[in-house]
Amino acid sequence: MKLHPARLGPAARLVTAAVAAGLALTASGCSLESTAGGDTVKVVIGYQSKTINTVTAGTLLKAKGFLEQRLNNLNNGHKYQVEWQDYDTGAPITAQMVAEKIDIGSMGDYPLLINGSRTQANERSQTELVSITGYNPKGALNMVVVAPDSPAQSIKDLAGQKISASVGSAGHGTLVQALTRAGIDPKSGVEVLNQQPQIGSSALESGQVAALSQFVAWPGLLVFQNKAKLLYDGAELNVPTFHGVVARRDYAKQHPEVLDAFLQAQLDATDFIHQHPLAAAQAVADNSGLAPEVVYLYNGPGGTSFDTTLKPSLVSAFKGDVPYLKSIGDFADFDIDKFVDPAALKQVYQERGLNYDAELANSANPLPGTGGELWLAGQDTTQSVADPTALLRAVKQARAQGKTVRAAYVPDAELGTRWFADKALWVRDGENYLPFTTSAAAQRYLAQHPSGVSVPYDQAVSEVRV
Question: Please, are residues 103 and 245 in contact by the beta-carbon 8 Å criterion?
Answer without folding.
Answer: no
